[in-house]
Fold:
Amino acid sequence: MNYEEKKFPDGFLWGGATAANQLEGGFYEGGKGLNIADVLPGGKERLNVLKSPGFDFEIDTEKYSYPNHEAIDFYHRYKEDIALFAEMGFKVYRMSIAWTRIFPNGDEMEPNEAGLAFYDRVFDELHKYGIEPIVTISHYEMPINLVKEYGGWRSREVVTFFERYAKAILNRYKEKVKYWLTFNEINSGLELPIFGLGFAIQNDEDKYQPTFQAFHHQFVASSLAVKACHEIIPDAKIGCMIIYAPIYVYDSKPENVMYGLQKSRFFNNFCGDVQVRGEYPAFIKRYFKEHNINIEIQPDDLQLLKTYTVDFISFSYYMSLTEKEEKLATDIGEGNILGGMKNPFLKTSEWGWEIDPIGLRISLNELYDRYRKPLFIVENGLGAKDKVEEDGSIHDDYRIDYLREHIKQMREAIEDGVELMGYTPWGCIDLVSASTGEMSKRYGFIYVDKHDDGNGSLERSRKKSFFWYKDVIETNGAKL
Structure:
């Protein structure tokens, strides 16, 4: 390829991604209410909490630490951080709005002006540098009041509260935000319902009946947000957001091939099919029938889902999964929180996540072949421990290598015919890890002096990858 051939399409949206609960801090400032992320402990305890039944959603400072409460203090330092994003040349910045800054309890009739004003200031700062915000409406931070008083997304009432919240921010920011996402990694509710669905499975209940009822409520809420977005901001685009992990079958045994197909449909396609195609797919209807799952659906719900589908598909890609029908515990990859077997052909990160750049090309092709809608990679990155040298420099060549290989596969997918809108690597500035609650699991181009024990100056500094990514954006992907 010559220089022009290596470049990405004109208008390609380069940037970075974060979430409010992982970087803002400002725990109780500006009238903010308590959300799910605020009660999740830091460190190894977090995954235990997320996967254990019966979590009570209470803060216990004698037993746990809560790094999200301060995070990296973006709430007070957003101008400094946005200036660094601009220095890298960001075209877009994917972020989320904290629901509890706008409706502290979630069920109020009127929004909190101080919260609305905070995001006005953030958007104005972004536009000062020509950076377009991409806003996730709900990113793992449901108001605790909705969890405790209503049961999270189990409750149909939460649909009304979400629609009120969505309309409030769509109306407020209609001149400032043109790209929206409804629910972050919506299919994560299949594995971690605390994060995505706002409840813990109780010890004595079946997992899937409440999970699928909650999904239905989210699908209705998503369609209502699409409807409101198209009415309030006609020139805006609103998408869904899923985790995508292509499934590799362990061998050619037909039973394993069928198992892999069913798992891929169940995890990768179910939520996308409803939000993009506007209907429940046949395979999930069969699953409901065979597992005696009965979803309460109101008379107009299915027409709403069919009428108000998303404009594009955004997704996170971190790993592929290798599967077979019957596997031993010793077969499972150590760090693959979604399960799956160890893939002997792949290296792993320090946290055991398998590294598979070609899997991103496969994902892009599978998604585009299935839906024929524009795609947007809004999360992808390497969590790693960074060493600060005596002179303050950070030589994170491992991160550069990871991102370079994934970007190469993005270019291949575009050559395959995939319509790809943009790329926002995850954690463009160091932040609190969602899965482990750690600062030491760093993703950013920008280092933040904050540590797992809570100590640190919060000072920002540029890693080697900062300058590398700046060149990538400046050359529109030609210089990797």
